[in-house]
Amino acid sequence: MNKIAFFDAKDYDMASFKNANKDERFEIKFYETKLSIDTVNLANGYDCVCIFVNDNVDKEVIDALSAAGVKLIALRCAGYNNVDIEHAFGKIHVVRVPAYSPYAVAEHAMALLLTSIRRIHKAYIRTRDHNFSLSGLTGFDLHGKTVGVVGTGKIGRIFAGICKGFGMNVLAYDKFPAKDSDLTYVTLDEIWERSDVISFHCPLTDETKHMVNKESIAKMKKGVVLVNTSRGALIDSEALLEGIKDRQIGAACLDVYEEESDVFFHDFSGHIINDDILARLISMPNVIVTSHQAFLTNEALSNIADTTLSNIAQFEKEGRCDNELCYKCEKFGGCPQEHKGKCF
Ligand code: NAI
To answer: What is the mean pLDDT of each successive set of 10 residues along the chain, which is 344 residues long?
Structure first.
C-alpha cells in the first residue's frame, strides 16, 4: 500500500505531502492531470490513488481502477460527491479526510461576506489607482441582521458562532439538527423567507442539488446575500443569474460553482472562458468568486497531508480505516460495520 498515484497535484499539495512524507515511507507519484477515464491508466501499478474534489471517479473509472489492482481511493478532502461510493462498494475501499480545518472554510465564508457587503474588493482596486472616492461603496451593518445557516455540521456551526460574534440573529436548518447545540432550527422555507444572508454548509446530495432554484429564490427576501462555500451545484447557476438580474438577490459570494471542474484551479487569464454563465456572473458588481480556496490555509494543508497518509497507513496495517466511506453508512445513518470494522 505504499505506492500512491496522486492526481490533480498542485505546488502546495506537493509541498505539504513531501513534508508529511519526510521519512519517505510512501512512494508518491504526482500527476498534474485529474483522474478520469482518459487518465486512469496512469494508476496502473499503484496500490492507491489520491484524489481531490474535481477528479471524476464514476463507475467506469472505479471498474478500471479495480481491474488495475488499485485497492484504495484516498480522498484528500471532506466532500465525496465526485466518487460513486455505491458502485465502489465491494470493489475498492474509499477513505477521506472528514475534517482538516473547519475554521479555514468558515472564516473564508465570513471573509467573502464582509468583502461583498463592505465593497472591499472595489475599494482595494480604487485606492491602488489613487481613486479615493467613496461613491457607490455604501454597505450595511451585519449587527442585528438575520443569517440563515443551511447545514450545521463542523463548518456550519463555526460559521454560526462567528455570526453570533457579529451580533447577528442566527437561524439554522439541517436535515439532522444537532442535539447538543443552542441553535434556533427552522424550516428551509423559513430560512428563505426570514434571512438577510444565507450561507450554505451542507453536502451535495440528490436532495440538496439545486436547493437554490427559481422557486426558492422567489421566497427569499429582496436583496438577500447568498454565500456558498460548500458545493457549487447546491445553487442552480442560471436561476442565480436571473435572480441577480431581477435585483431579487442583492449579492452572491461563491467559492464553489456548479461547473467549476474545468475552470477552477487553472489560469485562464489569457484565454476566452467558454462558460457564459460564469463569465456573466463574474461581470456582476455584486458577485464575488473565489476558486474553491476556502480550505487553503497552512493549517488545513498540513492536516490534509497528515490525515491522508495516516488513513493509507491505517488501511495498510489493519485492512480498515476509521475514515472509510461507504454508501451504506451514508444511506442508513451508520453502517453496522458487521465485517468487524470494515465496510466490506
Ligand atoms: P459535516 O458533515 O460536518 O456537516 C454537514 C451538515 O450538513 C451535517 O450537519 C448534515 O446533517 C447536514 N446535512 C446533510 N444533508 C442535509 C440536507 N439535505 N439539508 C441540510 N443539511 C444537511 O460537513 P462539514 O465539514 O461542515 O462540511 C460542509 C460542506 O463544506 C462539505 O459537504 C463540503 O462540500 C464543503 N467544503 C468545502 C470546502 C471548500 O474549500 N470550499 C472545504 C471543505 C468542505
So the answer is: 94 97 97 97 97 95 97 95 94 94 97 98 97 97 98 97 98 95 97 98 96 98 98 97 98 96 89 94 97 96 98 93 83 57 68
What pLDDT digit, counting tens, does each position of 77-88 carry? 988 999 999 999
Indicate which residue of 76, 96, 108, 292 is catalytic: 292
Q: Which domains does the chain have, with CATH numbers?
A: 3-100+297-332 (3.40.50.720), 102-289 (3.40.50.720)
Supply the pLDDT for residue 333. Answer: 58
| Number of Cβ atoms within 10 Å of the Cβ of 225 | 25
| pTM: predicted TM-score of the whole model, two decimal places | 0.90
Residue 157 alpha carbon, nearest atom of ligand 1:
26
Residue 260 bears catalytic tag? yes
Q: Probe ligand 1: pick from 8, 77, 82, 105, max atoms within 8 Å of CB? A: 105
Contact yes or no for 49/5 (Cβ under 8 A) = yes
Active site (annotated) includes residue 266: no
Measured from CB, residues less than 6 Å from any atom of ligand 1 are 78-79, 99, 102, 105, 150-156, 173-176, 201-203, 205, 207-208, 229-231, 255-256, 292, 294-295
Compute, in angstroms, the gap from residue 8 CA to the centroid of ligand 1. 23
Distance 247 CA to ligand 1 centre (A): 28
Residue 7: name the closest of 30, 38, 41, 28 by CA: 30
Known active-site residue 292: yes
Q: Is residue 234 within 8 Å of residue 208, measured between CB atoms?
A: yes
Classify residue 42 as exposed, middle or buried by CB count within 10 Å of its CB (0-12, 13-18, 19+): middle
Contacts for 126 with CB less than 8 Å, ≥ 6 apart: 132, 133
Q: Is 86 exposed, middle or buried (0-12, 13-18, 19+ CB in 10 A)?
A: middle
How does the average pLDDT of the chain come out, rounded?
Answer: 94
